[in-house]
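debug: dumping io for the single-chain case to check the tokenizer round-trip. Nothing else runs in this session.
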Amino acid sequence: MSGPDAAHQRPEGVDDATVEALGKLSEALEAAEVARGHLYTFHRLSGTTDLTLGDAVQQLRDAGHAELADRIDRELVGRNVIPGHWTFQIVEAYDDGYYATFKELERAAREELVGGRRHLYEAEMKEDRRTHGAPGHEAKPDDLRT
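debug: decoded output
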């Protein structure tokens, strides 16, 4: 009977509480990853907004509404999204601060407690939930070849 590969097996002497705690830490990191993705989406959409706004300003000028176009251009085009910041600065601050610290501490916890192994909680959950020997329920990719 096949099981997880060595990289996804609990080291000798590691208890359930530790595996569960590391699983929760991994879950929290995954949420931070999703938040980071949304932050990058915000960054991209804000850039698109500003460029599209510039096009709208030019179209207003071309349509004979120079005064309104000038006001929008002056007050909104290129404006900081929060005081002193364009979105690239927000992304960089998140990446270099909170996110980098989170990634490092999650890695350090895994190194200290389980020799750096990742996703032990999920690997054990897979073993508990899969139907051993059934097609589509292989423990690892290598099992497809046997």
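debug: round-trip ok. The chain has one domain: 15-129.
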